[in-house]
Automatic annotation (TrEMBL):
<dbReference type="InterPro" id="IPR039422">
    <property type="entry name" value="MarR/SlyA-like"/>
</dbReference>
<protein>
    <submittedName>
        <fullName>Transcriptional regulatory protein</fullName>
    </submittedName>
</protein>
<dbReference type="InterPro" id="IPR036388">
    <property type="entry name" value="WH-like_DNA-bd_sf"/>
</dbReference>
<dbReference type="InterPro" id="IPR000835">
    <property type="entry name" value="HTH_MarR-typ"/>
</dbReference>
<dbReference type="InterPro" id="IPR036390">
    <property type="entry name" value="WH_DNA-bd_sf"/>
</dbReference>
<feature type="domain" description="HTH marR-type">
    <location>
        <begin position="1"/>
        <end position="147"/>
    </location>
</feature>
<dbReference type="Pfam" id="PF12802">
    <property type="entry name" value="MarR_2"/>
</dbReference>
<dbReference type="GO" id="GO:0003700">
    <property type="term" value="F:DNA-binding transcription factor activity"/>
</dbReference>
<dbReference type="GO" id="GO:0006950">
    <property type="term" value="P:response to stress"/>
</dbReference>
Length: 160
């Protein structure tokens, strides 16, 4: 019996939702604790995570506002705090001098990665327990659920 046929306990959509809620709740608490460890608020840490995720393609303040679901005014405050704490630098956009792009400070990236990497290593190990077909389903579900969540937030808590 290969990895492909690993038996999974039967589950209803209700049980799947409950499991998702449990993961999200644990994550929210964890984000709070990690943010405290690195001396940031959860929103500031989330914003910084998006800056890291963007990599070479430096995001604008507007990009970050859209991703974190806050107003551009709120992002200005977040970026001021992150800059003061040495997490980011602002750079003028070469294509449009009025626009500012946000770059992560390498040592700050290293500090945050140090906290997250062991956790992500364990999650990666957990994925090894699943077949490629199952991982495809998980990825599809996470991707579609993220879009659904973003759209719902937009409709019901409209920002911007």
């Amino acid at each position: 019996m290969g990895m492909q046929d690993k038996p999974r306990p039967a589950a209803t959509p209700e049980q799947a939702l409950a499991a998702m809620d449990h993961l999200i709740a644990t994550h929210l608490v964890g984000q709070h604790e990690i943010a405290q460890q690195v001396g940031l608020s959860v929103t500031d840490l989330t914003c910084f995570a998006y800056v890291i995720e963007a990599g070479e393609n430096l995001p604008t303040a507007g990009d970050l506002a859209a991703r974190v679901h806050v107003t551009t005014g709120a992002v200005t405050g977040i970026l001021n705090r992150l800059e003061r704490a040495g997490y980011i630098t602002r750079r003028p956009d070469p294509a449009d001098r009025r626009r500012v792009r946000v770059a992560a400070q390498p040592d700050a990236v290293a500090r945050v990665r140090e906290v997250y990497e062991p956790y992500y290593a364990r999650l990666t190990e957990l994925f090894a327990d699943y077949s490629p077909a199952e991982i495809a389903v998980l990825t599809d579900w996470f991707t579609r659920a993220s879009t659904l969540a973003a759209n719902y937030l937009e409709e019901h808590c409209g920002t911007g």
